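[job 0412] stage=fold_complex status=start
inputs:
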Amino acid sequence: MTELMRPHAEQEHADELAALVRVDDRPRPPSWRLSPWAVVTYVLGGTLDDGTVITPKYVGSRRLVETAVATLATDRALLLLGVPGTAKSWLSEHLAAAISGSSTLLVQGTAGTPEEAVRYGWNYARLIAEGPSRAALVPSPVMVAMETGGIARIEELTRMPSDVQDALITVLSEKSLPIPELGSEVQATRGFNVIATANDRDRGVNELSSALRRRFNTVVLPVPATAEEEVRIVTRRVAELGRSLELPPADGAEAEIRRVVTVFRELRRGVTEDGKTSLKIPSGTLSTAEAISVVTNGLALASHFGDGVLRAGDVAAGIVGSVVKDPVADATLWQEYLETVVRERRDWKDFYRAARDEDR
Amino acid sequence: MTRVDDTTELAPAEESVPADAVVGATGPPETQPPVRVLGIRHHGPGSARAVVAALTAHDPDVVLIEGPPEGDALVPWVARGLEPPVALLSYVVGDPTRAAYWPFAVFSPEWQAMAWAVEHRREVRFMDLPAAVTLAPRRAVAQEALPEDAPIRTPDAPGDGDPAIAPDLAYENADPDPPSEREQVRTDPIAVLARTAGYDDPERWWDDVVETRHGIDPFDAITEAMAELRRYAPPPRSHAEQVEEDRREAQMRTVLRAATRDRDRVAVVCGAWHAPALTGKLPPASHDAKLLRGLPKAKVATTWVPWTHSRLAAASGYGAGITSPGWYQHLFDATDEVVARWFTEVARVLRRHDLPVSSAHAIEATRLAEALAVMRGRPVAGLDEVQEAALAVMCDGSEPVLAFVTNDLVVGERLGSVPGDAPLVPLDADLRAQARSLRLPVAPEPKDLVLDLRKDNDRGKSRLLHRLRILDIPWGRQMAISGTGTFKEGWRVQWHPEFAVAIVVASGYGTTVESAATACLAADPGSLAEITSRIEKALLADLPDALPPLLAALDQRAAHEADIAQLMEALPALVRSQRYGSVRGTDTTSLEAVATGMLARVVAGLPAAVGGLAPDAAAELRPHLDAVSATIGLLSDEARSLWLGGIRKVLQRADVPGLLGGRLTRTLLDAGQIETAEARGALGRALSHGPSVIERAAFAEGFLAGSALLLIHDRAILSLVDAWLAELAADDFLEVLPVLRRALGAYNQPERRALAERISALDREAEPEEVEADLPLEDLAEALATVRLLLGGGTGGGTWAGHAGGGGTGERGTAASRLSEGGNNEGGTAASVTGGGVTGG
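[job 0412] stage=fold_complex status=done
writing structure:
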């Protein structure tokens, strides 16, 4: 096992990528290491003709992934939108790794991201010693991607200041980056593209200008479509996390995971799974990632303070904490949910009691 | 090999070609009149175009179309102002609930065939089983039992594998599962072929495989493919379905034989699945005659009715329909650049919704759709690809925005029209039949009616008039009538000729007044107020089937209603509706369930809604709380305990306004939820520790309002109030007085009298209970006198009467009478009263 805490996608799945390159005989867009079909297979998993098993990286709609890959193949930039915890960055990393073999040309969008992170900066010692030259110029990940025909990733695009965002407009529309100091420019090699992610819960942070927005095709990553799918994701991640946190495995987790997922899904969608009762939607996001942390937390409680069996009481506190973010509105809707939905479910009595105790 | 081009000149050439070269299995043309069998996809624009080309080439004398022969006489209307989408409708005379529809859009091959025939003055004959047979009671009985949720009822069973034509509707509704591959082989065999070839969108497959190969007549290939498909297809789900299918094809062959006898050139337009059964050497006529012998028949009438695109779509319960009539219309209209033209339309729709979409978007969307098609190994972009590209490029990934495109374009709502002089629609027939049986004359002269709802006939009239009002056919206007009694209703009925139009419009909702009114109520319910009013209408018009969808909508609105007061306002009405409904014999259990659910929401939101309210707002909320408390008894015990539990929870809060705190404590006490001692404690605490004197008084007001019995019978509470009043400082008393007056002024005369007696008794006797033992009763005299004054106001009797001089107008009574007179001017009067009271005592 590697000593690295978290290897990049292209490192971790190097053998799968190599196998795909071997069998992939479909036409590839310029500079792409794989054909669009192979990229989709890499992301969604499958078995190749030569028997290599490709693990699924993203569990979700094939159509979305196809739209995303087709977008990149038409040289339009791709904007992945979604609530926190819907695997936007995860998908962006794997797409970049599969298409250009490197997921490391990354710009993290923050309120303090400078324009240099998108265009270029200077090595000032050299600039002063030698004057402006290409050697004194420090290229940004975007610039490197342009030169090499690779994929640049921009995380949390909407958190960047608007003026920095707009530096991308020329890059995306003209496919060139002027360097006025040197009187030259960098023109993008074919294959260059940008994958940006943004959280549509705080869309208002720095809303994209319509000029920039127009350069992107938008793919909204949804929360998992079915309860089964979400239970599977939560179970798998909880198991992985449990191993790395060295939590002893607890019994009865399956039923509680299903319950956590059910509660999250119902409140998120504003309707019960049987479609009979409508619900108010809480202010929190209730993402799958949060469900995972509720369950992990419950496991820790169960194994360190309980009898090793994951019970309703172990997850109730976590659920209430995730749902009730606003003390008035969310508390009300949680009460409504408990009384109109949870109370009616015969096999949820333990959870109802635990949640009510939590409430006091 | 000669090609059959879509030119008439080539038609004779085709005839001379050896049969197996082009006409394929249609039989030897030398010995039989040439028959062309055109196996189509229902509502398939590609088929429609090909049918027109084939008809033009073949130039038949008679066109046989899959459909009920009752429609033969109605074909001329195609040229007389029918605008598709329209449907042929057959209904059982005297029972319009049993009806079957055959809908046609412009791009339906059957419609195109009819239009071609009418234009070229050729005969059209429908060749399916008569509606008289399909609607015959033997099937209807079985179908009546099926649950139905669509506005349109058709009693016909499918069985045949041809659900693009409506007789299968009822069946499809009854079956919640989407059609499996096994069924789809029958229902839409061309879609199965397309999917086998890797296409999601059968029309795009048709375009790609059939249309783009110009000049090759597709129908023989289709027939051959279907023959193969039929050979290996799984059997239908039941024996009955197989029999039904055999009968239909027997009928088709019978009509075909008759046509070949008396006409030279025949064209057959039928669902692709049936094409092989009508091709080649037909089985002996006697075989078919045996199958068709002795089928029961119903007396049916047939007419044209307007239809809509959305009702062609599966979304409205036309289970076997098509989901994208607008897209098909586009495929039918667009001759080239299908995808680019589509995105231009999408851009136009989005702009109409004020969304900024440029031509650049349309270009990028076209590119993406084509890239997606390539990636999926499809030669052309289908509906899936264009929708996904529109979502990613033009809608910023927003599903709600894409819904504009879906509604306006993919479904592309369109309402067909039928000229006014077309035969009677079944709704009209039903209306007139009902009016006749209720002896209600359809006359233009106004006539006033007073209906006694206890009589069956009058109740029937009221029901009919209410239902017609729902359908926007205001035959009767409700009139105020003198006299009491909820069983009477006044109406003025007057028939206007323009109702004919309203009836045709309403006939889209259903075939009978009842089913149409139900569907109309359930459609698009709107706001909370609108829903409750519709629930009321549904109960008035006795339409129990309209309730479940309305209640579901109500539940949804209630979930999203943040204002507890609104919910509390709606709740008593709902609970009463439940009672009201039960008077009329409607099943209202579902209504009760919704009311209980709504109560749970009120209870959940109550603590937050009550906490920290200003006095004004608290006063506004109080009647709602009282109203809910008053009606809660009509619901189940469980609901009652939920409500009372909710109140307890509210009372645990520290920031409940005094008025509501008092009121809710009293509610609990009256409901027997808390002991008198507990209530006493609460009152004592509130009166001694309330945040301000006015809040304390408000608590007392809330607690004491309503009935005086508590004060009369609970000496301890009376003493508590008494003591509190006595200890008030003069200024505070001044402030408190109007509040108390409000609370106690509502007691009735005997109550006041009784209370006065108790107070005087309190004055005389030493209190035996320990709570009061510590109170310096002798110091309370003044306050007690004031209380008497407050309560007195004209009460006589007992000890008090002696003091006051009776009648409330004695010397001590002066202040008291001023108080009671001054109800509308409390502040000013109270000042003088206080002075008088304090000194006077």
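[job 0412] summary: The mean pLDDT of chain B is 74.
[job 0412] exit 0
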